[in-house]
Every structure is written in C-alpha cells, then in structure tokens.
Design brief:
- The complex is a heterodimer.
- Chain A is α/β, with parallel strands linked by helices.
- Chain A has 2 domains: about 1-30; about 35-120, Nucleic acid-binding proteins (OB fold (Dihydrolipoamide Acetyltransferase, E2P), Beta Barrel).
- Helices cover about 25% and strands about 35% of the residues of chain A.
- Chain A has 2 helices and 6 strands; from the N terminus they run αβαβββββ.
- A 5-stranded mixed β-barrel of chain A has the order 2-3-4-6-5.
- The relative contact order of chain A is 0.17.
- Helices cover about 75% and strands about 0% of the residues of chain B.
- In chain B, helix 14 packs across helix 15.
- The longest helix of chain B is centred in the N-terminal third of the chain and has 58 residues, at about 165-220.
- The radius of gyration of chain B is 56 Å and the shape is rod-shaped.
- In chain B, about 30% of the residues are buried.
- Chains A and B meet through strand 2, strand 3 and strand 4 of A and helix 31 and helix 32 of B.
C-alpha cells in the first residue's frame, strides 16, 4: 500500500471525526447556554430570574406530580451537591425519572424562584 | 415648752416607726365595725373605696364570728348542744362526785380535818367511857354525880370542845331555876299564913262593929225594921269578904253602905281586906312566875338539846336528853308533833319532802326511814336545800325522842363508816375510803372516832380529793390533754379508782373534736369557708385544748391568705405567660384556683405548656448526647412554636442554633421565602434543609405543603406557567 494512500486515508478519517464533532457541537441545543449557577441561585435567585441555563442533573427525589402542572423533581448538579427543585412540565411527562439517573436539561428560573425545565434529555 | 416639744417629737417618731412596719408586714388594718344602720346604696361605693380591701372569704368569716348566732339545726347550734351534753356527762360522772362536800363551809372543815393530827385511842376510849358513865349514872337518878362528870369530860378539850362544860352550866341553870321556884313557894306559904291572919283580924273587927251597932241601936231606941235591915245588910255585906272566892270589888261595894254608922271600925276592916287581897294576888303572881320559869327552863333546855343535835353534837345531845328526863322528872322525852312533815304538801313530782330528805340521806348510806329532822340535816349537809324547810320546824317541832333516835342511828352509821374507812385505806383503796370518810364526816364531823384516824391515811384522802378536783376542773374546762396524766396520778394514790368512764368520755370528746376538725378541713379545701368555720368553731368548743386546733387554725387562716395571694400571683403569671412559675408553684396554685373554672383551665394550659417544653428540652438533650444536633434543634424549635416566650427554650434553642447553623439557616430561608410567596425558592431550601436532616419534620412538612401549593390546579401567583 503506497504511503500516500495510507496518509490520505488517515487524513480523511481525521477530517471525518473532526467533522462529526463539529456537527455534534453545532447540533447541541445547550451549547449556547450557561451552566446553572447553583450557588448563585441559592444566594439570590432573583438575579437569575428569567434566564435560561443548562445543567447536568442527577435525579435525587420525586416530590409529586400533577397532570396539569407537571412533576416536581429534586436534582443535584454535576458541580454542586446541593439539591435544587425543578418542575418538569407536562409536555415532558413521558420521562421516567429514577433516582441516580443523569439528565441534561435547559433550566429557567421563574417567579418565586421556581426552576422550570424547558427541555430535558437523558444523558 | 421644751417638754411639749419633746413629747411631740416622740409622737411623730413613733408614728413614723409604726407606719413602715404596718406597711411592711402587710397586715390588713381592720376598721372598727360600723354601727348597724340601714344599708345606703349611695354610701356603698365610697365605703368600698375607703375601707381596706378584705377578700370575700375573710369578710364572710368575720361576719360569721361577730354577727351570727348559731341557728337551730346549724353546725354551731349542734356544737353548742354537743358541748352542753359533754358538760352534763362530766357532771354525771359518779367517780367525780364528793357526796356532802358541795357546801363550801363543810368542804373547808373537811379539808382542815384531813390535816389534823390524830388523837390517841386511849384518850378517846377514856372519853367514851365517861360519856357512857354519865348516861348510866343518870339512869340511876344521880344527877349531881353525872353533872360532876361533865366537868371531867370538858377536860378533853380536843374532843369535847367545851360542850360538856356548857351542858353542865345548862344543868346548873335548871337547878338555879328550881331553887328560885322553891324560894317563891316559900314566899307563897308565908303569904298564905298572912291571909289567915288577915281573915282572923277582919272577923274580929266585924264582930266589934256588930256589937257596937247593937249598942248604938239600943241607945237610940230606933225601930227594929231599920236595925234588922242594917243587920241584915251587915251580915250580908260581911259574908262576901269572908268568902275567898268572892269578888273583892263587889264585896267592898256591898260593904260601903254600912260604913256610915261606924266609920273608924269599917276603915280598919277595909284595910284588912285589902291586905288579904294583896296577899292573894301575890300568891297568884308567884305561882304564875314559877310556872313560867319551869316552862322556860324546860323549853330552853329542849332548845339547847336541839342545838346540839343541829350542830351534830350527837353524843352530847343524847346525854343532854338524859339530863332532861332526870331534871324535869319526865318518864319520856317531850313529844312534839313528830313526823308532821309527812303530812306536808307533796312537791311537784308528787313526793313528800320527807321522802326527798330520806332519799338524800339514803345516798349517804343512812337508813332511809330515819326521822324527819335527821333526814333534813343529812340533806342540808349535802348541800341540798332542806325540803322540809324552816316552816316545818317552826310549825311542827320535832320530838326529842326522834332526835335521840336519829343521833344514835347516825353515830352507829359513822362508827361503821370509820371501820370501813380503816379497812379500805389499809388496802390502798383510797377512793372507797374517801367516800366512807366523807359520809362519816358529813353525818357527824364531831364523832370522836373520826378524831382517832391516822393523819397519814387522811392525807392520802386529801391528796386523792385534791387530784379529783383537778381532774374535775380539767374535764369541765375540757383540758383533756392533761386528763390522762391526772388519771394516772390518781391511780397511783387510789388503786380502786375507776377511770373507765372519764377516759371514755375524754376519748369520745376528742374523737368528736377531731371529726369536726377533719370536716372543717375538708370544707375549707372545697372552698366552703363559712361552713368550714362553723365546724372549726364546734371543734374548738368541744375540745378547746386540742393540739391540732392551733396548727389547723394556722393552716386554715394561712391557707386563706395564701389562697388570696396565690390567686393574685397566678393571674399575674398567666398574664405574663410565665408558665414555669405556675408550674413551680402548682401545688399552691392548685388549691387556690380550685373551683374557679376559668383559672383551672388556665392552670391546665400552663402546666401542659411547661410539660411539653420540659419534654422537648429533655428530648433535645438526649438527641444532643446522641449527636443529633439538628434533631435537637428542631425539637426545641417545635416546642417554642407552642410557647415562644419561654426563656429556657429560647436559650436552649439559641445554643443549638449555633451547632446546626446550616440546617437552621436553610429552614429559616425556606420559611422566609414561603412567607414571601416565593414557593420555588422556599421549596428548594426546605429540600436543602431536609438534605441536612432527612428526618426533619419542619422540612418534610414544608416540602409537602409547598409542593402541593405548586402542583395545585389553582396555583398561586408564583406558578406562572
């Protein structure tokens, strides 16, 4: 096998991988969001009100569910062990949360400091 | 002036000193009771403001004590009845009676007698022998020898007391009367001789006058009619004067017409007649005097005998009676209207005075069928008002024979009583001995046998009676706590003293008092202070010396004061929510608020709060010891929710807050957010707090509560989408 052929294949492969990652990056909806600042939230949620964040969440507890309102879940984030309460809206009712599962979610701090999940994907 | 200044200064200083003390002591100053007047509604409020504050219970108690008399059927009335019944029972105790010594004078004489030294038996026998000898000599008719013996008897001054000498004087007095009567009789005999002389002289003068009239008639040659008439008149006029039974005045009047003829002779005749009349009158007067002297002598001697009898000089009375028979030559004693009292009107109970007197005498152990005078005397000696009275004696003199009989009987009884006394005293049975001695003394305190009794034995009786008096006084004054000791002391003197009845009486009274006191306490505890006071008073009346009475009284009145103070303090502490003070003084407060529903509920609430707080405190301490500081904090925190102002809990809470700062901070933030309706933020902090302390009730409750609010179909304003 000539050398240039091998070198060409390697370059192609590398480009393919690079393209894949670029594609993946460009396709990630959370790529533009800031990680959820748990510490700041707990200090004063009002500064975060109305902003959207991304967060890698780990299921801690289920506080309840209402069909009209959604599901109240307790998560911890990757960077902070302190729990936060997130309301999973009814549109994501199909998700089945089990303690210890990891999710990536887009979070928005609403009035009264209640955190809403705009989207949530299982990692 | 300086003196006045000093006095004024002293008064001011005294006032200043007394004022603070009265204020410090807090003693209520009761105003003097106002005079009774019609209630005036307009005055009431002002009086209420002016008068010192006296609580209702105290005022009702004072009102009861000073303004109420025991009503029929009330506790106080029954108490009075009980006290009266006890007094009657005490008086009815046989062992306390001293028969015959109720009369203070007799009692005093008896006390004196008990302390007198005894007289030797030989001396008494000699004296008795002389008494017997006097009676025997009198029976033989030798009054003079008997009279001489009386002087010999009077030498026994300690036994005789000079009575024999006085009796001898009385006998001598009778003899003197007899001598006087003899002198009168001799004078009468002389007068009778004079009368004969006067008669004879009168006859001679009359004869001379008759001869002279005949001679004058012859000389004048007058007619015989007149002479016959004069003669007849002379014979007629002389004859009445010669008759000793003729009326002297009528005789003299008849004689007077004849005196015109021969005046001189007739005057002589008249003088003789007057002498004759005088002599006859003197004889009559002397006879009357002699009779009166005889009667008076007999009466005086009989009276003296009665006096001897009345003064219990029975032996002398018997001798005097024998003298009476001898002196006045009477075969028997003079009889009065003896036993007339038996016909006296019956008393209200249908008994004759004689019966009553006999009954009194019977109680002394004397034969009940004794003569009236003796029964009277016995009753009188026992302090009983003589049922026969003086009226009977005045209207119906007692026969001397009855007096002699009763005197003999009494002497016999006294002798028997003395023998029994000696026997009982020798056996140490002083109670029975004392009874015998009292009876003997009351019957005849001058009985020589009594004087022979040994002083040591008599003093035992004296000690016994003195202690019996003390016992009686103790019972009557209801000093029952001393009675047992007194009974023991009496028993040591008199082994035969029956203490059963006094002890039973005392125990009964004590029990009654204790029961009343217990009832008073019960009523006081139930808040029925008026009724309690009544029972308390009855208990005090029944047994004033009850040792429990003072303590109970102190407790009773202190309880009232404490109750009033406690109520005030309780209200203040409840108002301050100082339930711990209420808890600490719960025993005092429990009694104070009993019956007051509102305060009882407050008391219950206070105790429950403290109880919960104490339990929380204890639980927190346990949790701290196990390392569960958050749990300890939460326990105290929950307790403070129920009682936020408790210092102890707050202090403990503050202490624990520092040791569980994260948990406490999370909860505080959660609560703060919840209060601001920041439900999401609050829920996060509750969850955070739960993360610190998973068992936290506050956190879990908060999570449930907030979660439901967020998930509610009608969410709050915080849930926006």
């Amino acid at each position: 096998m000539p050398l240039w052929i091998v070198s060409g294949l390697l370059i192609f492969l590398m480009l393919g991988i690079l393209g894949y990652f670029i594609y993946q990056y460009l396709e990630n909806p959370y790529r533009t969001l800031e990680p959820f600042p748990v510490d700041k939230y707990l200090s004063d949620y009002r500064s975060l009100a109305g902003a959207k964040f991304k967060a890698d969440l780990k299921v801690s507890a289920d506080l309840g569910w209402k069909a009209e309102t959604g599901r109240l879940m307790v998560f911890t984030t990757e960077n902070d062990s302190r729990p936060i309460v997130v309301l999973i809206p009814p549109k994501m009712g199909g998700l089945f949360f089990t303690k210890g599962q990891n999710y990536q979610a887009s979070l928005e701090v609403g009035e009264g400091g209640l955190i809403y999940a705009d989207s949530c994907e299982k990692k | 002036m300086p003196t006045h200044v000093k006095k004024s200064s002293l008064l001011i200083v005294a006032s200043c000193l007394s004022l603070p003390w009265s204020l410090l002591s807090g003693a209520p100053t009761l105003n003097p009771a106002p005079p009774p007047q019609a209630p005036d509604a307009s005055n009431t409020p002002s009086n209420a403001n002016v008068l010192p504050t006296v609580d209702n219970s105290t005022s009702s108690t004072l009102d009861y004590l000073f303004n109420h008399k025991p009503a029929e059927g009330s506790a106080a009335k029954s108490g009075g009845d009980v006290a009266s019944a006890i007094s009657d029972k005490i008086k009815a105790l046989d062992v306390l009676k001293t028969p015959g010594l109720n009369d203070p004078q007799t009692r005093a004489r008896f006390q004196t007698y008990l302390s007198l030294k005894e007289i030797s038996d030989d001396r008494i026998k000699d004296y008795f022998a002389k008494i017997t000898q006097v009676s025997e000599i009198l029976k033989q008719g030798d009054t003079f020898a008997a009279w001489k013996l009386l002087y010999a008897m009077s030498e026994y001054k300690d036994l005789d007391a000079g009575i024999s000498r006085e009796l001898a004087n009385r006998v001598e007095s009778v003899w003197m009367d007899n001598r006087t009567k003899n002198g009168i009789e001799r004078a009468n005999d002389k007068l009778r001789g004079n009368i004969d002389t006067y008669d004879h002289n009168a006859d001679l003068i009359a004869s001379d006058l008759h001869q002279q009239e005949i001679e004058d008639r012859k000389k004048q040659g007058n007619a015989g009619g007149n002479n016959n008439s004069n003669q007849n008149n002379s014979n007629t006029t002389n004859s009445p004067l010669l008759n000793p039974n003729a009326d002297p005045v009528a005789a003299e009047a008849a004689l007077m017409p004849t005196m015109g003829g021969s005046l001189q002779g007739k005057m002589e005749l008249t003088a003789e007649y007057i002498k004759l009349l005088e002599a006859r009158a003197k004889i009559k007067l002397n006879e009357m005097r002699a009779d009166r002297m005889s009667d008076e002598g007999k009466r005086a001697f009989a009276q003296y005998i009665k006096t001897l009898y009345d003064t219990h000089r029975y032996y002398h009375m018997i001798i005097a009676a024998d003298f009476y028979r001898a002196l006045f030559n009477e075969g028997n004693y003079p009889s009065g209207i003896a036993n007339a009292a038996s016909s006296a009107p019956p008393t209200s109970v249908g008994r004759t005075p004689h019966d009553m007197a006999n009954q009194a005498a019977t109680s002394m152990g004397i034969n009940s069928r004794v003569p009236i005078d003796m029964a009277n005397q016995a009753a009188s000696s026992m302090g009983i008002n003589s049922p026969l009275g003086d009226t009977t004696q005045d209207t119906h003199p007692v026969s001397m024979s009855d007096q002699v009989t009763s005197a003999l009987e009494i002497n016999n009884r006294v002798s028997q009583a003395i023998d029994v006394f000696k026997y009982k005293a020798g056996r140490g049975e002083i109670a029975a001995a004392a009874e015998q001695l009292q009876e003997a003394f009351v019957a005849n305190e001058f009985h020589p046998g009594l004087q022979a009794l040994v002083r040591d034995q008599k003093e035992k009786v004296g000690d016994f009676l003195a202690k019996l008096d003390v016992l009686k006084n103790q019972l009557e004054s209801r000093d029952f706590e001393e009675v047992a000791g007194q009974l023991t002391a009496i028993k040591t003197i008199a082994s035969d003293f029956d203490s059963t009845k006094p002890l039973a009486l005392v125990n009964g009274v004590k029990l009654e008092s204790r029961l009343r006191l217990g009832k008073a306490k019960l009523l006081a505890q139930q808040g029925q202070l008026t009724d309690a006071m009544k029972e308390f008073q009855v208990a005090a009346e029944v047994w004033p010396g009850n040792p429990d009475l003072q303590n109970s009284a102190n407790r009773f009145f202190n309880t009232e004061d404490v109750q009033n103070e406690s109520t005030t303090e309780f209200d203040r502490l409840v108002k301050e929510q100082n339930y711990r003070q209420v808890f600490d003084k719960q025993l005092a407060f429990a009694a104070a608020v009993q019956g007051d529903m509102a305060r009882e509920e407050q008391m219950k609430t206070a105790l429950e709060k403290v109880k919960k707080a104490e339990m929380a405190s204890e639980k927190a301490n346990m949790l701290v010891m196990n390392g569960d500081v958050n749990g300890a904090w939460e326990t105290v925190e929950l307790a403070t929710k129920d009682w936020p102002d408790d210092e102890k809990l707050n202090k403990l809470l503050a202490n624990l807050s520092g040791r569980s700062a994260d948990f406490v901070s999370a909860l505080n933030k959660a609560r703060d957010a919840e209060s601001k309706k920041e439900l999401g933020y609050s829920l996060t902090w509750f969850v955070t707090a739960q993360n610190y302390y998973p068992a936290s009730t506050i956190a879990n409750d908060g999570i449930d509560r907030i979660s439901k609010l967020i998930l509610s179909p009608q969410p709050s304003a915080a849930v926006s989408n």
